[in-house]
Every structure is written in C-alpha cells, then in structure tokens.
Amino acid sequence: KAPLFGDVDTCGINNLHGMPGILGGLASAAVPFYYKDAGTIAASQATGLGLTLVVAAVTGTLTGYLLKALGSPSEMFTDETFWECAEDVPKEAPAGYSRA
User: Fold this and answer.
1) Which of 74, 21, 25 is nearest to 46 (CA)?
2) Is this model's pTM higher than 0.85 or not?
3) What is the rounded CA–CA span in Å between residue 55 and residue 96?
4) How many Å apart are CA 52 and CA 21, to the nearest integer?
5) How far apart are CA 23 and CA 14, in angstroms?
6) Is the Cβ–Cβ distance between 77 and 97 less than 8 Å?
7) Helix 42-70 vs helix 19-34: angle between axes, to the nearest 10 degrees?
8) CA angle, 9 then 63 then 75, to 5°
9) CB neighbours of 28 closer than 8 A, spacing ≥ 6?
10) How many CB atoms lie within 10 A of CB 85?
11) Cα angle vertex 35, ends 21, 53, to 5°?
C-alpha cells in the first residue's frame, strides 16, 4: 500500500510529535468541561489547537515546495551527499535489509 502523499515518514516524526501534540490539545480543550475550576477556557484551547494545525500545514506545504524546487540529492537516504563520512561506514545496506 502506497503512502497517502507518496513519501514515507522515515523518522516517525508524526507518531512521536504530531499525534501526542494533537491528543494533548484535545485533552486541554476537554478539561474545562470536567473541572470547572481548571482555570482554562475550552474555546481558547480549541482555537490554539486549530491555529497550530493551520500554521503547521501552511509552513509544511511551503517547505515541501521549497525542497521540491531545490531538487533531490543523487543518492537518497545517505549522508554522503552532504557530509564527509568515515571510511568504515558501509556504503550499501547490509544483506537482507530492504529500503523499500
């Protein structure tokens, strides 16, 4: 099955930062309904979450267009394109390892 946008989140950034952040934002908007003296306003928390998602979507889209305009490196998923690597770093994937 192909990913929705054609690329893969190889570092799990969405799972590590995105989903917990959204869950925390939703929880902070729900807390005032259960604890009236929590000192927060549900609408403010929900607005903050919504604005954060809009800013993230816009800046992510702009970054994607910028990176697409700059072009892809000749070899994907290797640091040698941008850095000098030690000679003992294998240039090929170990046997039995698939990048697909």
Assistant:
1) 25
2) no
3) 41
4) 10
5) 12
6) no
7) 170
8) 55
9) 40, 45, 49
10) 13
11) 20
CB-CB contact of 29 with 46 (8 Å): yes
3-class secondary structure per residue, the chain: CCCCCCCCCCCCHHHHHHHHHHHHHHHHHHHHHHCCCCCCCHHHHHHHHHHHHHHHHHHHHHHHHHHHHHCCCCCCCCHHHCCCCCCCCCCCCCCCCCCC
Per residue in 14-64, pLDDT (tens digit) is 888 889 999 999 999 999 999 888 888 999 999 999 999 999 999 999 998
Task: Report which of 58, 4, 56, 3 is spatially closest to residue 25, judged by C-alpha positions.
Answer: 56
